[in-house]
Amino acid sequence: MLIIKFALEGLSEALAKEAASFGVKLTMVEPGGYWTDMYTTMSLSQPIEAYGPLREEMTKQYSEGSVDSDPQLAAQALLKLIESDDPPLRLILGSMVFDVAINTYKERINIWKQWETVSRAAEKAIPAPEGYGEFEGVQP
């Protein structure tokens, strides 16, 4: 599921950049938990035993500090988003989700910094290869 969500984020980021030139603004809303009828109407599949430890770790990780809220709070936040002249690319709703996002980006930045030398060494300007940019019937 995380792969699909990540793919949708990437697609949404690309779409937001492309649509911006037409004056269209896109926001990805990343909500925490809200008390809806989802908890009473959803059906669950049989858990796969091999995923037991991962399921337990995720349950522990996402239950600590997680608070399910009144959906009206999300609705109010969405109305503020809609009324904004300068909406963000991402809007995080809820403290636990906000903290997870901040920590995730801090971890990414730390890793990038650790590998900065390798990253920067992988780039050195060279002339374009001969024929680059030439297409049938089109000359640069």
Any overview of this molecule?
The chain is mainly α and 140 residues long. 53% of the residues lie in helices and 6% in strands. The chain contains six helices and two strands. The chain has helices spanning 2-20, 38-41, 52-63, 71-83, 95-114, 116-121; strands spanning 28-31, 90-93. It has a two-stranded parallel ribbon with strand order 1-2. The chain is extended. The mean pLDDT is 89.
Please give a handful of descriptors for the protein shown:
140 residues, two-stranded parallel sheet, mainly alpha
| % residues in beta strands | 5-15%
Q: Which stretches are low in confidence, meaning pLDDT under 50 for 5 or more residues running?
A: none
Q: Give helix % range.
A: 40-55%
**Span between N and C termini?**
44 Å
Q: Quickly count the helices.
A: 6
The shape, in one word, is extended
What gyration radius follows from the Cα positions, in whole Å? 22 Å
The mean pLDDT is: 89
Task: Summarize it.
This protein has helices spanning 2-20, 38-41, 52-63, 71-83, 95-114, 116-121; strands at residues 28-31, 90-93. With 140 residues, it is mainly α.
